Amino acid sequence: MDQDIRVRDVRDDDWDDIVALEAGAYTSLGLSEERSALESKARASPTTCFVLEVRGRRAGYLLALPYPALAFPELTRPEEAVFRSPNLHLHDLVVAEDLRGAGLGKRLLRQLTARARQQQYEQISLIAVEGSHGFWSANGFAPRPGVVNSGGYGPGSVYMSLALRAEASSSPVPPSRAQPSQQIESPTPVGGPPSGASARDEVG
Ligand SMILES: CC(C)(COP(=O)(O)OP(=O)(O)OC[C@H]1O[C@@H](n2cnc3c(N)ncnc32)[C@H](O)[C@@H]1OP(=O)(O)O)[C@@H](O)C(=O)NCCC(=O)NCCS
Asked: Using a 6 Å cutoff on CB, does residue 98 contact ligand 1?
């Protein structure tokens, strides 16, 4: 089955399927987002958002974007700004219901972790919604209780984070070039930085 599985960056023609997968996972929990809110995450950080293809079918996705540690997107509105931060927020991960339990969620997460290290992020954060803590704990995330009690993510939600060890990076960068800790956690508008600013400054 392995050769039938592909994780790739999100394309414009993926969104109908992403929206359907999202609605399937969250509508019954009252946590489903507008399409524009989902799309805004990939616009903010296209290199940290992925689609999972299994035998040519879009079978999952992952959306992550830089966000200041201990902060997180509101579910009800599109992102209007791009933050510069050494913290990468994993906003959403969904695998099609009939394919769960086969390691595909872990696979998407591995892809994100590798990309995050390449881009010199120092930490990945997320909000585990009701019932998903077990998956995240098994994948190394630790709860940070008290950061979220509800915040639109439901009563059982909890903020969790995973530190990325610099020595595990697949493309090590000399300390003099390492940037994330120098970055300012300030936003620029989605769609591009203000004139004169470097777009490369927005992510690690
Ligand atoms: C969470 C999700 C992405 C996991 O995808 P997956 O492909 O099933 O994950 P994997 O196969 O890599 O891992 C499965 C393991 O995680 C565990 N797991 C999966 N979902 C879990 C959950 N909600 N609670 C506890 N454990 C969970 C499974 O029991 C399994 O454990 P095992 O390996 O010991 O048998 C998938 O269940 C999903 O899409 N859920 C709906 C959307 C969602 O809740 N996303 C997370 C938002 S915070």
From this structure: no
